[in-house]
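INFO batch 0412 | record 1 of 1 | parsing
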Amino acid sequence: MKLLCLGLAWGSLFSLAAAETSPGEWKPLFPDQNSFAGFRQLGGKAHYEIKDGLVTGTSVAGEPNSFMATEKEFGDFELEYEFQVDEKLNSGVQIRSHSVPSFKKGQVHGYQVEIDPSARAWSGGIYEEGRRGWLAPLDQNKAAGAAFKHKDWNKVRVRAVGDSIQTWINEVPAADLRDAMDQSGFIALQVHGVGKDASKVGTKVQWRNLRLKELGAHCWQPLFDGKSLSGWQTEPGGEWKVEDSAIHGTSPASEARHGMLLYEKPLSDFTLRLNFKVNRGNSGVYFRSEKVAEGVSVHGIQAEVCENEDTGGLYETGGRGWLVQPDKARMQKEKVYQPGQWNEIWISAHGKRLVVHVNGKKTADFTDEKQTRLSGLLGLQLHGGQDMDVQFKDLALLTPGQ
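INFO prediction complete | emitting tokens
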């Protein structure tokens, strides 16, 4: 779900972006501790029961994944719970999740904080149920895997704020995800389907001490009104105009300068979403950049936007060159970039960590230890010396809502 900020003045954007999220109070996820009031069961027909705050889910033969889901949706929050699980059963807790008729006939989809008693031990990792699969596995986090306690109670903490989702398993850091797909949704307890495997039918997962602290919500604040270039300024080279609610940039190969369209206010930490279409040439979305008296117009980092599988990489103009060049074989195999079509890119720059997704698939995740400029200009590029034709639309920043 992509929430849009409503009723915000353009001038308030940057004060909101810098504001701290207001803390809430811890509240039990099951207020009366003995009923599923405020919840609904989705998916399969696994058996759920609750008594004195202890929730037990039991697998049933032949049923698909089952979910006990909140009727209410949550945006930013902290969630804590304890669980113990049968060694033969997989489970998880859905966050910012959805079930709508238009998506696979109501199939539950969204982020899942994994419960994994297998030898792999990825409890606390983040899997996206019903859509993209693993987003934050724990194959590179052996400490989190070792923290899981078999046949015992385990404590999980989840913090979801903006595009950041962090998890801890028994106080050990597990997942640290930056992903802008959803900013709100329901919370649900999952009992994984076991098919007709008699050795798994009747296996159980239990939860206790489930509590939640709401922290407000983030939503998308437009950077482009779809009608004019108000709030943007051009640098020499190429031409920019608005057509069909999109920014259209063109430049002939005879133009040696890099044409730039710069947002009028600098950004520090941010998450940006936009759609782009490359008809011809090499382009990019610059950030943490500064103007220079050269034909390239700015020095800084760009998320690459071009006609091939370099799209979604990170390149530093006036500095180190490629910081992250995408794996072209993987890009081609997964068809991440769609040539000649509208594509969506997310750019997340928080502190020294830079994360890029193209069409929902991560193409760069880079911690820039050498970077000293942590704020700067945002801009769209027309590469000099090339026949350029590129379009951008639906530009928005993820900001705290009200």
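INFO post-check: The chain has two domains: 23-215, 221-400.
INFO record closed
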